[in-house]
Request: fold
Amino acid sequence: MAHIKMIGIGDEGKVSLLPIYEKWIYESEILIGGKRQLSFFPDYHGETLAIESGLSSLVERLCSETRKVVILASGDPLFFGIGSYLASKIQLEIYPYVSSVQLAFARMKERWQDAYFTSVHGRSMKGLVQRIDGKEKVAILTDKENSPNKIAQYLLSFGMSEYQAYVGENLGSSNERCRWFNLEEMKDTEFSPLNVVILKKIAEAPHWSIGIEDEEFFQRKPDKGLLTKKEIRTLSLSALRLKEESIVWDIGTCTGSVAIEAAKIAKEGQIFAIEKNEGDLENCKQNMAKFRVDATLFHGKAPEGLETFPDPDAVFIGGTAGGMGDILDICCSRLREGGRIVLNAATIENLSEALQAFKERGYHTEITLAQISRSKPILNLTRLEALNPVYIMEARRKEGE
Reply:
């Protein structure tokens, strides 16, 4: 295999390189990089190869290459770059340059070790709002489609106006430009395709702890109460054993209360919710916007639509409206290793059906009967008023199954 070096380079081109790096580039026999990076070396006499699509074909070629190779990458190749992927596939040495985010913070004159870093470069903005909600300082790598104005429009659609934005364009080049914006200004401004967005929190914002009060949710009227109650919701979320990167299904989401609180825990994961009632789905959408959750919603009756969701780490079943067997067939067969399915049942008949269904599919179950009472004033006294009892069933695949 060839001796391969990966060298980070800034937007200012050759002047960003140490002399030894430039020497290595001109001594190489193949120079690989993006078109912009390659354009910095019009006098290079070896073979050049532009990276224009996926990296798997490049890896395949490099594995059989015997000549000296230099790969050019923008900024720090190990910061949301190609460095980590290539290093996991081939032997190479990495020599980073300053990342665009580091330059942006330098222009701001702000420390950056306490910032939250994320990227929408070449990926969907889906779920961005719950990832950054509550963070004091956020750095976002962008692209042509997910531009600063699109990011501002997206965040404002969730009521996220507490941030001031700093946008650094063409950082390090002769046409560098850095500006502050509020999000209302930013949503109507055009930017250079090469930019970095830094959000700085300048105002207080709403915060919700686990166990959001039932009254906070938009609900169906006049039939209020068609949501998983706070206490049952909290117990069910605990049983799901969620992690920060969990993929969660919420079947029969109704107002979306479980999906919303699951997203507050699995901020780096993905939330998928399905609901058959159009009115409830509209309430769910309003709740998602209010509580800053960007879940994938599907209008339909499960198991319809479940085939479009990625394999879950956790499944919550709040209602099946019939068809429990077909739903559990999919959930049990696609649940990831170590995952949990939590089913809420209000009747003994549904509990019995679910218990037998999980047993037939090789799942171990644990059942909690939650009988909750809440205090209620009566004149100058206090009494307790019972909520409807709910069976909380936690199911997991038996070892070896």
